[in-house]
Amino acid sequence: MFLLAVIFYQIQKAELKTVVSMLLITVWGAAVWYYLQDKSKKAADTSDVVLEKVNTANLKHPEIISSNFAIKSAPKKGLVYLKENNVLTGIIKDIGFLKTFDLQKYQELLVYMNQYQKTYMYILAERYPSQSYVPTFLDTRENILELLYQCYLVVPAQFRHIYGFDPYQVLEKNIQTFHKLSRTMIEVLENFCRMDLKEYYFPMSQPAPLDLARQKEKQNILP
Fold first, then answer.
1. How far apart are CA 135 and CA 129, in angstroms?
2. Which of 58, 107, 151, 207 is least surrounded by Cβ atoms within 10 Å, i.e. has the fewest?
3. CA–CA dist 215, 157 (Å, integer)
């Protein structure tokens, strides 16, 4: 009430042009705020629609053969954790053409990315013990990269002449995006474990030996 009284007093003493300017700034500010809110809501709705289509059309609880003990089958509750990460959702949306050629591999990517995000969130929430699940997190990252690089062998090169884009360029862009995202997530976990949990041991993740091997493998893929 005191703040409102001060504002009202200042408005009363202000000149007409000052009052008009304040009104215009308020109106413009409100318009920008509503615009940003609407844009954010539409982006969230689009993400939800993409994941809903994935859940209903592509995720049919496939059997997954994995050495990762945290992943045995598709989650029965759907991709509830994947939708919390907009970057991972964007990757899944961009490489949606993969399900045309290898639906099983696309489903496995969905499951691994969902588990990847779940492990990340649960470690930060201290629901998973970091010493046990940080290696699981790193293993899941390697599983995802392995599947992404295998996509080069699944998608034909002449695909671009049919649909108007080069699938290899799309795969390359999204692999690089995942590399940057995963590196950031690893750094967050490392800082959290060392600074908050006072657990100074953290598995070595940089440089990752397999990354160089996969880079050479990618360069030798036949067109």
1. 11
2. 207
3. 19
Q: How many secondary structure helices (H) and strands (E) does the chain include?
A: 8, 0
Strands (E), 51-208: none
Report how many domains make up the chain: 2
Rounded to 5 degrees, φ, ψ at 42 are -65, -40
Is the confidence at residue 88, as pLDDT, over 90?
A: yes
Given a cut of 60, is residue 160 above it in pLDDT?
no
Q: Is the peptide bond before 156 cis (omega within 30 degrees of 0)?
A: no
Q: Same domain for 112 and 139?
A: yes
> What pLDDT digit, counting tens, does each position of 8-53 carry?
666 666 666 666 666 777 777 777 767 667 666 555 544 555 555 5
Neighbours of 169 (CB within 10 A): 10
> Do residues 80 and 3 share a domain?
no
CA neighbor of 143 nearest in space, from 87, 92, 215, 69:
69
Candidates 74, 213, 202; CA nearest to 138 is 202
Same domain, 24 and 87: no
Q: Please tell me whether residues 79 and 173 are part of one structural domain.
A: yes
DSSP state of 73: B
